[in-house]
Specification:
Blueprint: E1 11-15, E2 27-30, E3 36-38, E4 47-51, E5 58-62, E6 66-70, E7 80-83, E8 89-91, E9 97-102, E10 111-121
Antiparallel strand pairs: 1-5, 2-3, 2-4, 4-5, 6-10, 7-8, 7-9, 9-10
Length: 123
């Protein structure tokens, strides 16, 4: 098994605004209270959850480099990705925020690597 090393400057820990204890490798979003919650459909993604936590406990997200995320639909390598309604990755469509590009293909439920290449909304 390959071990990924993530530089600490690409990590951020903050209060979980919901129970994220079962949400390892999901996309995260910052809510209006500054808490980490799951990213919704096409919402801005702050990062992927690398240390899950229950509500009102610190959760850690990665926001740069090569991340891992759960696929919510079939993903093709090289495709722009976005968050679906459950914080999983889906192919990005026009008007959605895309945090990056899939590095491998994946089926729904797979955890796959992606590169953070945030250029904002998909045109």
């Amino acid at each position: 098994m390959a071990i990924m090393k993530i530089h600490e400057s690409l990590l951020w820990a903050r209060n979980a605004g919901a129970d994220l204890s079962e949400k390892l490798n999901y996309f995260a979003h910052v809510d209006t209270d500054g808490d980490i919650v799951l990213a919704g459909d096409g919402e801005h993604v702050i990062g992927n959850i690398i240390e899950a936590a229950s509500e009102n406990n610190p959760v850690t997200v990665q926001f740069g480099g090569i991340g891992k995320v759960v696929a919510g639909a079939a993903i093709v390598a090289g495709e722009r990705i976005a968050s679906d309604g459950d914080g999983k990755a889906a192919p990005a469509t026009t008007g959605e925020f895309s945090p990056g590009i899939a590095l491998t293909s994946a089926d729904a439920g797979d955890v796959f690597p992606f590169a953070y290449i945030s250029s904002g909304d998909v045109a």
